[in-house]
Amino acid sequence: MYRGVTAPIIDTSTTNLDKVYIMFTMPKHLLSVDTNAKTVKGQKYGYMTGILYLAPAAISGYNVCAMSTIAQCEQACLYTAGHGAFNSVQSARINKTKLFFEQREAFMARLVKNVIALVKRAAKNDLTPLVRLNGTSDIKWENTPLTHNGIDYDNIMALFPNVTFYDYTKIANRVNLPANYDLTFSYSGVLKYQKYVKTAKTNGMRIAVVFRSIAIIPKKFLGLDCIGGDNSDVRHSEPKNVVVALYAKGKAKKDMTGFVVDAKPVFSLAAV
Asked: 61 and 251 in contact (C-beta within 8 Å)?
């Protein structure tokens, strides 16, 4: 469990965003809009995507990926992919993560403004907005309450019921989710992680699996049909109980922890 999950109720409508920073600077844009090569592909399906990128695992001093050690996914994390390779971008993500934990009220107020801006921008382009809050983290956003215009909300999804939020997660038992929050479970072949894979499959979750290359992607994996997942990042429109097959990119191609898959599952779920 990470710190801050059971955050105090905050009022995003009354926070003065220009007077907050003692130690850190509040960025104007928390959401990166269609800067990811795969999310840009979503535009051909009618979607505009805003993604929040934080510093993964405990890089910032706060652990935002509770399962990263068990799943051994830190080595293959896409944190440094693309623009993330720049020190300035990594520093900005560390800054945002610290703000989330240490200046929660101002952070959430800015995030609300960003979602509102995304909705307006998408409408101007005749697109439907999508929001992914865990671009490089695994926070339980369904457990992060806020107050806006004097009204308490259980989470940001409740504040924007007509906006679809989605994420990948390595936490298999996230239940009672908002209707507009779609999760895809992220697979790892590490032995001690298999009980979580089994739970995700039992719960009927869509499961994303990263294969070493396109050539080895099978028709079935874990007994589930495989569908291609690199055409876009529009996961919420896909069926449950399938494997979303992705292929390794960047430094993930060299991963040997078990996060990146070479062929069939190394361990049988029946034996877990």
From this structure: no
